[in-house]
Amino acid sequence: MVKKVKFGLCEWSSPIQGPYVCRFARELGLDGIELAQGDYEHSFPLSNPYIQDVYLKEAANNEIELTAIAVNCLDYYAMTSSDDTSQKKVAVMAVKKAVETAKRMRLPIVQIPAFGKSYIHSEADFQAVADCLRSACKAAAKEGIVIASENALSAEEDLRLLREVGCPNLKIYMDTQNPYINNGYSAPEMIYVLRDHICEVHVKDGREGELSAALLGEGATSYYESVKALCDIGYTGFVHLENFYDQQPMNCCDKDAVELLRKDVAILKASFKSYNETV
User: Fold this and answer.
1) How far apart are CA 67 and CA 59, in angstroms?
2) Tens-place pLDDT, residues 79-115
3) If you count DSSP H runs as helices and E runs as strands, how many of each does the chain have, helices first?
4) What whole-number distance in Å separates Cα of residue 261 and Cα of residue 34?
5) What's the CATH code, domain 6-271?
6) What CA–CA distance (Å, rounded) separates 149 from 163?
7) Per-residue pLDDT for 124 more than 70?
8) Any idea where the Xylose isomerase-like TIM barrel domain is (predicted)?
9) How far, in Å, CA of 189 to CA of 178, rounded?
10) Is 108 helix (H, G, I), strand (E, B) or coil?
């Protein structure tokens, strides 16, 4: 039997969030969910053991894999700030709690994004993010947890990041739109270069200058070419939908967010159909 790509949904992209997202994903015919840690202002909800157990129960009842936890608050609290700032202290706390959550919930991946306030603009930023990733990798290594960097770097810069962090459990979280919308890079070309370093994938699309704002294949980000590249390198991990189905500019209160998501599920599955068949 050929190993298959699995399809999932980022919790923060779902019109339905919270533990019920597991049932929703099953009804959509998906295989998994990437969880959101939640924000600092609400004490990182997924750090609470009671809430963790509710998610685990719902996932088991609906045969949904919980594949990763995303530390999305790093968009607002900078890994790149000086160590003595409140910004950096929150960023470090968020990563620490995410690793602890992954350990208890047996999640295989902690995704650490470097966008927004954690965007890498300079060599100093690069080194600050590398330090955060290195610390996270060391904390996660004993449990076999992967730390995944999602960033706006080029493929060559990502390879340098992997070398300088120097931890075998550091991987790259690939995205089919971020490279293009941030710096004009080609996601398909990056996939070929990074191939074995990719642990999981986000798919989204958008027209020029629009983030997560078009159904897959209807934007300017070479979605189908990215699918081909993933097939060519033999990728067999999760591919998670990350379009913003209930937000502007994709949805200006004039569309059914659930139906938009259903359309993207169909596009996603069809685009991988030949690769996802078993023999």
Assistant:
1) 11
2) 999 999 999 999 999 999 999 999 999 999 999 999 9
3) 9, 8
4) 16
5) 3.20.20.150
6) 13
7) yes
8) 23-268
9) 13
10) coil
